[in-house]
Write the structure tokens for this entry.
Amino acid sequence: MRGKYLLGLVVILAALAYLIFGGLGQNLVYFLTPSEYLQDQARYQNRPVRLGGLVKEGTVRYDKDRLELRFTLTDGVAEVPVVHKGTPPGMFKEGQGVVVEGRFQGDHFQGTNLLVKHSETYQAPKEGWTPEEVRKLIEEAK
Amino acid sequence: MLKTAQPERPDTLTWVFLGLGLLLLPVGLYLALAAPPDVNQGYLARIMYLHVPGAWLGYLAFFVTFLYSLLYLFRQNPRYDRVALASAEIGLVFMGLALVTGMLWARPTWGVYWTWEPRLTTTAILFAVYVGYFLLRGAIEDPELRAKAAAAVGILGFINVPISYMSVKWWRSLHQTQSIDLTTGKIHMDPAMLQALLFNLLVFTLLYLGFVRFRALLAVLEARREEA
């Protein structure tokens, strides 16, 4: 009976050690900005990294047939061209903060995972968003 | 000195907390579903009414465990240990709710259920520490040693609460910063949403108080059986 608890305790301690020393060490810097990446390019070459920044206005190109999303990631100083396979997430739009997981391939950053940030501000829409209007939006999207 | 006669049943106050909490729960649900949608997220933002009270009550519960663990170490009264235990257990339930609703919220907004970003990582660590708290309790046979060891974990483990809360400010994260910022007092939320959120927070607090008192009573009965 007590042995089972001790075993569980060891598992938890191992998990904690892994989280704190293995995971958290890298995660304190969750993502790099494009400028940070470009300053220390040699270090991150051919290694999976997370890049964070804003989707530059007017750079989003989505190829529906090949499911290929292209956009420029910017931190206001440096810019990085991103290519991502797959449909853009629902909240992805120009000017939005995003984090892309992937690695550099030649001149562009090949994303394997695209994460969209959202703000801490919650606002009710000025008008619209009645159930009927939402239903219409869903119908249109089909 | 404490009452020598130990109660067999929950007292009136426990029933009042539980009764009011359960009675107001559907009202909170109604307010959450009647609150306006968010400009960017639409109806998805409504997960907030479960997610935020869950996380806050989880933090509060672990704070109460911290407080009663300290009290136990100073006074050596088993009653404090039982409250610490009860609060940690209910805290795990609320924190678990926050984690699950957070994952369900993250998939449609961020695009993933889970990512090892600072807020999520520190909260996972927090959750694991209190799971460890109960495994430690189960592993030790001597009641006095058990209570002392648990109090140590209850005190040290609490360090993770402010770290988890501040993680979104201290480090680059995917999780947005606080909408109701307790460090600056700023609120970034529509008043109608805030009302619904605060009401649900009240309901969760009532349920927490009721649950903890109920669980502490169960701990009394457990201790009595252990002695017998």
